[in-house]
Amino acid sequence: MTVKIQLQTEYITLGQFLKLADVIQSGGMAKWFLSENEIFINGEQDQRRGRKLRAGDKIQIAGFGEFLITE
User: Fold this and answer.
1) pLDDT tens-digit profile of 28-61?
2) Quick one: which of 21, 28, 62, 70 has the most CB atoms within 10 Å?
3) Beta strand 2-6 with 12-13: parallel, antiparallel or unpaired?
4) Sorting pLDDT into bands at 50, 70 and 90, what band is 27?
5) What is the DSSP pairing of strand 2-6 with strand 65-70?
6) Cα 55 to Cα 10: distance, rounded to the nearest angstrom
7) Rounded to an integer, what is the distance from CA 21 to the centroid of its chain?
8) CB 52, CB 46: distance < 8 Å
9) How far, CA to CA in Å, does 44 sit from each of 9, 28, 38, 58?
10) C-alpha pair distances (Å), 55 with each of 14, 17, 25, 34, 35
């Protein structure tokens, strides 16, 4: 099942997304989480905390599921 995350702004960074999606407890955990887990954005692996996610982007995190950014 794909979880939809709705944006109120033009984009959200990957670090902010992880907190918003309840994958991590605080923004400070983002760097550690990204170094320990494989994350795929639109089918490509990406570990950059500052990666901008926009409406239509699909995020897959092993053990956490799939997420879709919506407007």
Assistant:
1) 899 999 999 999 999 999 999 999 999 999 999 9
2) 21
3) unpaired
4) confident
5) parallel
6) 8
7) 7
8) no
9) 23, 24, 10, 10
10) 13, 12, 23, 21, 25
**Domains identified in the chain and CATH numbers:** 2-70 (3.10.290.10)
Q: Can you say how many angstroms the Cα of residue 13 is from the centroid of all Cα atoms in its chain?
A: 8
Position 9 scores a pLDDT of 93
Alpha-carbon span 9 to 27, nearest angstrom:
18
Rounded Cα distance, 8 and 54, in Å: 11
**pTM of whole model > 0.85?**
yes
